[in-house]
Amino acid sequence: MLRSGDARSVDPLLNKSPSHDDDNNDDDNDNERGRLSYRSSSRHSSPLPSTSTVSPHTRTTTTTTTPFTLNHHHRDRPMPPPRRATTSGLRSRSPTVLSSAAAHLEARRKYTYAAFFLVVSLVSFTMQTELASYIQHDLGWDKAYCMLYLTHGSWIFLWPLQLLVLRLRRREQSWARFWESHVKSVRGLALVVETRDARAASRLSTGCGGGGAGLLEYGHSPWPYLARTTVFVTMALTVAGLSWYLAVSMTTPSDLTAIYNCSAFFAYAFSVPLLKERLRADKMLAVAVAIVGVLVVAYGDGGESSSSSSSATEDNGDTLDPATRLAGNLIIGAGSVLYGLYEVLYKRFACPPDGTDAAKGVIFANTFGSLIGAFTLLVLWIPLPVLHVLGWETFEIPTGQTAWLLFISIVMNMMFSGSFLVLISLTSPVLSSVAALLTIFIVAIVDWLFNGTPLSAAAVFGGILIIGAFGVLSWSTWREMNEEERRKQVDLSGDEDD
Predict the structure, then answer these.
(1) CA-CA 20 to 30 A from 463: which of 30, 88, 254, 410?
(2) Domains in the chain: boundaries
(3) What is this structure's pTM?
(4) How many CB atoms lie within 10 A of CB 125?
């Protein structure tokens, strides 16, 4: 019987007839070379031809550079380590192409959602503004804090309405399975929000539907974090909203509109330290142009008699005291700062990080909005009896037409607030603030169409400035979303290769 050493490095292994003895001899050869064989006893000879004298690196070099097809005898043994290097080399090139397409698709999906909720927020805010103005001034139900309490408390219905929509989309599932999956998804998203772990969010997108993967296995409850976040975000929102109602009767409508809508500037100012947002020239210019547009709308017709009279007098014709007007401007200025802070705090502490699925971002935004509504209803009713006893705001239940219009106004505010929270979650506080400025021009158009109020040249020019600023911000945000999604996809693909 021939020893395998006689054919070593001379006869191609491909020409040797496979046999059990050959395999044993080959194992012996491996032992003679000073290494352990990784082959099983049932293995046949390698189908690759030897091209040089066998050395410790021969099999690695041949396997790496020469493609081959495994036959059925290779199923029982592990793959050679160099094979993985080749696979990684092939895979390392594909994620770049795939991640670019996936990033573009995800960014486009986010922007589609954002565009839809932007339209909903603009329409609902316009209707809510017109109805609130009619209720307060024409119907005489001027209850600032009570209206604030009712409108913000209505947010509690955002989550039940969302749950109804999700249930209608998954009618084939049993209620027990649907409820368990939804609670697990919300809890997992809350954990992602608390830890700010975008990679956990990507694992959650595949594990939460029924597998319970990712952060759900940590056993940590996110509810204390959500409770704390709800308290300070709601307080910032409540004080900011209350300042508007307080300043309505203390300052002019022009001052009120111009100062309060400067919240877009403060949202950008707070985004730099809290959200680590880079200072970009195009964003700063867009915010500045938007604020100039608001100032033009508010004060552009100051020279005309009608506008000048409204800028210095109250609705009943009495002249505003300069000290009262200054106090009103200071109050609304503080409200503008707090509203910009509220938007950034919500984005920083109550929104899923970048890289989270857009649909899950919508779900969590409405869920957190319901938490704000629940806190408002359960806690912020306390000032109502205090204001009633002090005589600052007498509590009065609305009836008749006032009650119906107030109900519609509350529903519109709920729609606007839910859409606005989603818009901030999917984009940024700066873009959402400038988008809200579009309502100034839309309200002016509605007043012109339905109330006969003439649309001034200043309103048109200011509206054009605001629209242009919004367009610049939208394009800048679109580019940032594409870059962020592409970076996330590349990072995740790199982790898979590792």
Answers:
(1) 410
(2) 4-73, 120-477
(3) 0.70
(4) 22
